[in-house]
Amino acid sequence: MYRKKPDVDVLNDVILLAMDHYPDNTFLKGLYRQYHDLGGLSRKQMEGLLGKAEKVTGITDAQKATLAAEIRKKPQRFRSDAPTHSPIYEKDETAGRLIAEILSRYPEHRMVKILQQKYEKMDPLTAVERQELERFHRLLVKPSAD
Predict the structure, then answer these.
(1) Centroid of chain to Cα 79
(2) Is residue 123 part of a domain?
(3) SS3 for 52?
(4) What is the pLDDT of residue 146?
(5) Most CB within 10 Å of its CB: which of 17, 25, 33, 106?
């Protein structure tokens, strides 16, 4: 990380001042250790430090503002909502109606029974199967309805 003034480290100063005010706080000790070992803090850790810094009287408003600005520069990570699951295939109501009409008149029709099993298993009917079903309906059901 490039710094304009390497001798000025507001984050380190805020951690040290907060540790002077809260000497037994393990959270601040962990922040101090992580800041010096890994070289930085996460956004959540900085927000926790700012919450502690608000209660310390020795920390100036400028240091708090600098810490708040550093927090705003950090990326904010969040989880998006889980996607809603929709069925991959929705039953075609007209195909179901055609199958029901054909089987009501001819309950033992083998090809239509195969198509019915496929329809009930939520497998999509191919274009050829759909045309066959419409052809069977046209041949078997329509003439006797007249």
Answers:
(1) 6
(2) yes
(3) helix
(4) 47
(5) 17
**Half-sphere CA count of 69, side-chain side, radius 13 A:** 8
CA atoms within 13 A on the CB side of 88: 4
Residue 79 included in any domain: no
Position 114 in a domain = yes
What are the tens digits of pLDDT across the range 33-43? 999 898 889 99
Contacts of 102 (CB under 8 A, 6+ apart): 109, 112, 133, 136, 137, 140, 141
Q: Which of the listed residues 39, 73, 107 is the one where a domain comes to its end? A: 73
- Domain residue limits at 119: 93-145
pTM value surpassing 0.70:
no
* Distance from C-alpha of 80 to C-alpha of 140, rounded to nearest angstrom: 53
